[in-house]
Design goal:
The N and C termini lie close together (about 10 Å). The protein is of the alpha/beta class. The longest helix is centred in the last third of the chain and has 10 residues. It is globular, with a radius of gyration of 15 Å. The protein has 4 helices and 11 strands; from the N terminus they run βαββαβαβββββββα.
Length: about 180
């Protein structure tokens, strides 16, 4: 297994390194990633990023989302980027930011294997995505909306929260790496 982490300027890069400790992984800035360079990796993680990123700066990640034939996990902004590719629109939440631990109800899926139906996850975002095509299915929800998605025919996942920053979330990354 070899994991590519595409860093979209997340504040949680050290936590991601901690979850991946002992594994073969490489971290590349979103500014440096090229689709043709993903061939040597078995799994791809698209990290979160700062508020108000310009989606047009992420053309290579969009190509990965559309064309990669390997498991891809989008975290926070990475999740939003996946949803954007499938037609969702970005919506600012009412409060300044949703930050902290929140309960999320999950559906049965291999990515949530070994977890209870209700998990506690760390969130840090000011936007949510609404309305997306029929190629994606919702895997988790909270009082704030849709928290996790999966493509119906590919190993393409997105989570609005930061699994790298919480106990239940680390299990999600471990499960993703088993795909």
């Amino acid at each position: 297994m070899r994991v590519l982490v595409i860093n979209n300027n997340t504040e949680f890069i050290e936590q991601i390194k901690g979850v991946l400790k002992g594994l073969d992984y490489e971290i590349i800035s979103f500014k440096e990633v090229k689709f043709e360079n993903i061939i040597d990796f078995t799994h791809i993680i698209l990290t979160g990023g700062p508020e108000r990123l310009d989606f047009d700066l992420f053309k290579e990640e969009v190509k990965i989302i559309k064309e990669a034939d390997k498991p891809v996990l989008g975290i926070c902004f990475g999740h939003q980027l996946i949803l954007k590719v499938f037609g969702a629109r970005l919506v600012k939440i009412d409060s300044k930011e949703r930050r902290g631990f929140f309960d999320v109800v999950v559906k049965k899926d291999s990515i949530f294997s070994g977890l209870k139906e209700k998990i506690s996850v760390f969130e840090s975002h000011s936007y949510v995505m609404e309305g997306f095509g029929e190629e994606l299915m919702v895997l988790a929800e909270s009082d704030a909306g849709k928290e996790a998605i999966k493509h119906k025919s590919k190993n393409l996942y997105g989570v609005q929260f930061h699994p790298e920053a919480g106990r239940d979330g680390k299990k999600i990354i471990e499960n993703f790496l088993k795909l």
